[in-house]
Structure formats: C-alpha cells, structure tokens
Design a protein that fits this description.
mainly beta; 4-stranded antiparallel beta sheet; 3-stranded antiparallel beta sheet; 8% helix; 51% strand
C-alpha cells in the first residue's frame, strides 16, 4: 500500500510504502463520532501497548494547534479526548504519537 502524507508544518506531501501490518492498524484506527457535536472524541488505537503514553495534538486547517496533551494514558488502545470549550466548529486533524507509532486522522466538529 502506498499512502500520501501531507505535512501541515510546511505544506508538503510525500509518498511512502507501508507494510500489511501497518496497513491493518491504520485501517482500524478510529475516531468517533465523526462528525462530532459534543467535543468528546472517542479514539481506538489498535495494537498500541497500554503502558505507552500518547501525545495528542489537534490542529485546524491553518496549521494552528488547538489542543495539545503530551501524556495521555489509554486503556488497551482506547481513550477519550475532551476538546477545550474555545475550540470552534470546523474541520481538524488529530495527530496521536508515541515512541514508535504515529496516527493522523481528520474529523469534523459541528
């Protein structure tokens, strides 16, 4: 599988090949509900070890960080994130990362 990655830091894209295992994990990574109306995001990260803390960053379409948490705990790859009340309605990207993994997804906050 070849995927295209868009960097919001310098607006560049690059293509990379991912393994079948990574492809499975990417396909199982979920944020719900999406679209979201409450600001409470449920996240499912398959295959991530429970003892690993996740860094969570939410950015808007302008590349501005609207939420950042560098030590989010999870239970068996499941976690919730409450967006701050000042986050406005719109389209956002959420980036979740730890020492070995990085997941990126788009969600809509209505």
């Amino acid at each position: 599988l070849v995927i295209e990655i868009l960097s919001t830091d310098n607006i560049q894209s690059r293509k990379m090949t991912v393994s079948r295992e990574d492809q499975r994990r990417i396909q199982q990574f979920r944020i719900f509900p999406n679209p979201n109306t409450t600001g409470l995001l449920n996240i499912h990260l398959p295959g991530v070890k429970s003892e690993e803390l996740m860094q969570i960053r939410v950015i808007d379409l302008k590349g501005q960080t609207v939420y950042n948490n560098s030590g989010q705990k999870h239970s068996n790859g499941r976690m919730t994130v409450q967006l701050p009340s000042q986050v406005g309605k719109g389209t956002y990207f959420i980036i979740l990362s730890n020492k070995t993994d990085r997941f990126i997804s788009r969600f809509i906050y209505q």
